[in-house]
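In the design runs reported in the main text, the only information available to the sequence generator was the tokenized backbone. The following block is the verbatim input for one such run; it is reproduced so that readers can re-run the procedure and compare outputs position by position.
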């Protein structure tokens, strides 16, 4: 069993391009069913200065390939495609 606090310390790596996406900042839970539905990572900051909003990268649980000792491997489209969009992005099957 893995604790949520342990997951937050692991690097998340995209297996499609080998890039490190960052560390998990939050986890989306389905409380009714007691399941993790997505991992939330920090995206790029939009704008300049200290008052800019940082978009989030939401990775559905189904896109997680393997959770290892030091790393979480995911399979998502390239980060530049995702971060190029204006709103927070939730990956789903229609985007592939």
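Verbatim output:
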């Amino acid at each position: 069993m893995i604790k949520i606090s342990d997951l937050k310390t692991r690097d998340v790596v995209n297996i499609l391009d080998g890039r490190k996406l960052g560390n998990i900042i939050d986890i989306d839970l389905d409380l009714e069913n007691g399941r993790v539905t997505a991992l939330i990572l920090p995206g790029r900051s939009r704008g300049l200065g200290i008052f800019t909003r940082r978009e989030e990268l939401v990775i559905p649980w189904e896109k997680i390939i393997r959770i290892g000792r030091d790393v979480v491997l995911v399979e998502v489209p390239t980060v530049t495609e995702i971060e190029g969009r204006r709103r927070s992005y939730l990956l789903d099957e229609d985007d592939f």
